[in-house]
Design brief:
Number of strands: 8
Shape: globular
Pfam families: PEP_mutase
Number of helices: 10
Keywords: Lyase
InterPro entries: ICL/PEPM, Pterin-binding_dom, Pyrv/PenolPyrv_kinase-like_dom, Pyrv_kinase-like_dom_sf
Structural class: alpha/beta
Helix content: 40-55%
Protein name: Isocitrate lyase/phosphoenolpyruvate mutase family protein
GO molecular function: lyase activity
Order of helices and strands: HEHEHHEHEHEHEHEHEH
Strand order of the largest sheet: 1-8-7-6-5-4-3-2
Length: 258
């Protein structure tokens, strides 16, 4: 299957009325485990988790070469479309996306980092143009706005209006979907879906998020889990160590997955 075909498949998963869930991965073995679970239709990486795996702090501290190389390992480990979390693009979002496509990535999160709106929208347009130039016009750019995660002490209504304005601008610039991370309540999700249309909004699952079934009913395209999937795995590891220190052993629920 070609990269362009995988991108088309991934785009179709976003535009379908049933909610796409992606439990984020961070290396080849986590990708293999998630991909092998029945019902998994696509994978997405988590930049925070990849950076942590390689000993870097989050926030574009990892060299882009190392991020792209890990994406290559993940793509090569599975037979599913893979979307990559590429933070803000590491100084050159179109070039970073071009390099990601070169290793088989067919979608990406790119943060706006609350740049001036015209600049952020121009970046979206440039990324989609770069993907088309690489022969992948259906590249699933999940254009992220940080309106909620960088809200500070702004009024919630102002933050929501900002998220709507930015999201609509990114769709107008060619992004097929937009990503609005944060703990969104039903009113906020409904406002965003009404403004953008069904199957155009993607969100992240955090403690206290709306149930998956309700997100699907509201017309959300996709929900991802960011670094939380790695946190769940590391919690299990820490609990094993605690049990061993207390004289216990391996849990009866352990699976042999590799």
């Amino acid at each position: 299957m070609t990269t362009a075909t995988r991108a088309t498949d991934l785009l179709a998963l976003h535009t379908a009325p049933d909610l796409l869930t992606v439990v984020n991965v961070w290396d080849a073995i986590s990708a293999t485990v998630v991909a092998d679970v029945p019902g998994t239709r696509a994978l997405a990486t988590a930049s925070h988790s990849i950076a942590a795996t390689l000993g870097y702090e989050d926030g574009e501290n990892i060299p882009v070469d190392e991020m792209v190389q890990m994406c290559r390992r993940i793509v090569d480990a599975v037979d599913l479309p893979v979307s990559a979390d590429l933070e803000g693009g590491y100084g050159d979002a179109p070039e970073t996306v071009r390099r990601a496509i070169g290793v088989g990535v067919v979608g990406a999160n790119i943060e706006d980092q609350m740049k001036p709106l015209a600049e952020a929208a121009a970046q979206v347009e440039a990324v989609m143009a770069a993907a088309a130039a690489e022969g992948v016009p259906d590249f699933v750019l999940n254009a992220r706005t940080d309106a909620f995660v960088r809200a500070g002490d702004r009024e919630p209504a102002e933050v929501l209006a900002d998220a709507v304005e930015r999201s609509r601008a990114y769709l107008d610039a060619g992004a097929p979907v937009v990503f609005v991370p944060g703990r969104l309540d039903e009113r906020q999700v409904t406002t965003l879906v009404d403004a953008l249309g069904p199957q155009r909004l993607t969100v992240i699952a955090v403690p206290g998020s709306l149930p998956l079934r309700r997100l699907e009913e509201l017309g959300v395209a996709r929900v991802s889990y960011g670094p939380n999937s790695q946190r769940v795995a590391l919690t299990a590891l820490a609990e094993l160590v605690e049990d061993v220190h207390d004289g216990g052993g391996l849990p009866a629920s352990m699976r042999v997955l590799n």
